[in-house]
């Protein structure tokens, strides 16, 4: 059994560009970065996948978790401030897998259709663990095909922000994959008060292994996404 978690921690440039309410709630980004790091440092999962990690956030996490193994994918696209100047020392955006113990990196690449999204795959105890962030438009179909091919050999678990609801993700990846279900009264993974997009877009997906105890953890407003955890194996 492997405990896993996934969380989109919200890159500050994206928050500022889209006037995200989290940016208003945390005017000092260094304080939010410390709070996000605190949330991650208190987690007990063996593997934690993080999306939208800024260079500043990654440095904070590395400092707080010196005994953990970090696997990272630095996207070729660097988020560009469009509304206000960035407060970040390093604007680069990363996809991150934090592993308690050893892990063998298998693949790391942005998607051909989006240089700011991608997949990072690491083998942990014989299980292929894939962290991913999928684009929220028509480009996702090809990205889902890439993910299915990457995880074509079981056992595998995909962790990430899929920008789509459970049914859409399951249909796109195919019958060999199982998208973990959540309790009917679960907190949303991406709370929102307007728009037609699903509030449940962050998932734990498995192939060839079981998944249980999937649940959403409230992160107390440190990001616009909540954390999703589960046990696989």
Task: Please explain how this structure is put together.
The protein is 23% helix and 35% strand. It has 6 helices and 12 strands. It has a 6-stranded mixed β-sheet. Strands 5-6-7-8-10-9 form a 6-stranded mixed β-sheet, covered by helices on one side. The termini are close together.
Could you give a short description of this structure?
With 233 residues, this protein is α+β, with helices and mostly antiparallel strands.
Termini separation comes to 4 Å
Class inferred from helices and paired strands: alpha+beta
Strand content: 35-45%
Instruction: Tell me the major beta sheet.
Output: 6 strands, mixed
Question: Taking all residues together, what is the mean pLDDT?
Answer: 97
Low-pLDDT segments, ≥5 res:
none
Order of helices and strands: EHHHEHEEEEEHEHEEEE
Which key phrases capture this entry?
single chain, 233 residues, alpha+beta, 6-stranded mixed β-sheet, 6 helices
Give the topology, please.
Elements: E1 2-8, H1 12-17, H2 21-25, H3 29-41, E2 47-54, H4 55-64, E3 69-74, E4 93-99, E5 104-111, E6 114-124, E7 127-133, H5 140-150, E8 156-161, H6 166-173, E9 177-179, E10 202-207, E11 211-217, E12 227-232
Parallel strand pairs: 1-2, 7-8
Antiparallel strand pairs: 1-12, 2-4, 3-4, 5-6, 6-7, 8-10, 9-10, 11-12
Helix pairs in contact: 3-4
